């Protein structure tokens, strides 16, 4: 973990502490401690198991997508990938560091970077597809609630959905319309060459370097994605596992509310609202969506939790499980040595067969 990443991590923890302090400004601390002491530990444990299941299933998905093309790639190596991803997501704007951190984790295990990128991008496509599908269902279920309770968040959610949808369209173009995508990329790079910073020679050198890098990445992703999508059973496994993975994640607020004694709640509505919150968080540029995440949670769940101390406590627990838990687990995984595969070139040999 680089010095800059450590600095960002410290800043994010400081922001989290500041948000926590601000949220507690009007809270009766005696009531808050009473809520903590009377919380149902068993339901809280179920919420914790949900985030653990979410991470473990993602490790299984990585192992499934790698398959037998990389001999010696263990489940320990596969599980390190989503844990390190959580750390990367948590310290970078728009969770942009998740993919590079995952590639790094697979490279540490001996997997060739181009192949690792292709696997992770395919996993990302499946993940985005399931997220968008869940959003459609959640919007239908929670539309009346949103119309009555929150107006601004509704538009933020739709904007978040459009971003996710655009990402899927872009990736699908790379997968199945390679020449068209390559032309669009070349046009975009030529614009950068003309309007970029620096002198003419510097812009040309930068253009050639980026163009070569983009051509290799586009080609590798196209080839591997065509191979993977032609394997119907692999894609079905990925879709099913990702659906279960997200089901556990989206269920976390429901079990937190049960732990606080709110038993007369609708599971489908609560999980649907959590789907919508995730969409809002995705459009905030601050790492982890800090600020926007807390406001969104309190705005949507204040109708179910009528005691201010309970609402703040529920928000704290939810934020810890869905954000800080993954970051801390990622820090541990980052410092665990990866199992090196027996032959780093195995995947090349199998690819040629």
Automatic annotation (TrEMBL):
Q: Does the keyword Lipid metabolism apply?
A: yes
- Subcellular localization, per the record? Cell membrane
Any Pfam family matching the protein? LPG_synthase_TM
Any one GO BP annotation for this protein = lipid metabolic process
Q: Where are the transmembrane segments?
A: 6-24, 36-57, 115-141, 153-178, 238-260, 267-286, 311-334
* UniProt KW Phosphoprotein keyword: no
Assigned EC number: 2.3.2.3
Record-linked PANTHER family: INTEGRAL MEMBRANE PROTEIN (PTHR37693:SF1), PHOSPHATIDYLGLYCEROL LYSYLTRANSFERASE (PTHR37693)
Can you tell me which family this protein belongs to? Belongs to the LPG synthase family.
Q: What does this protein do?
A: Catalyzes the transfer of a lysyl group from L-lysyl-tRNA(Lys) to membrane-bound phosphatidylglycerol (PG), which produces lysylphosphatidylglycerol (LPG), a major component of the bacterial membrane with a positive net charge. LPG synthesis contributes to bacterial virulence as it is involved in the resistance mechanism against cationic antimicrobial peptides (CAMP) produces by the host's immune system (defensins, cathelicidins) and by the competing microorganisms.
- What is the protein name given in its UniProt record? Phosphatidylglycerol lysyltransferase
Name its species.
Periweissella fabalis
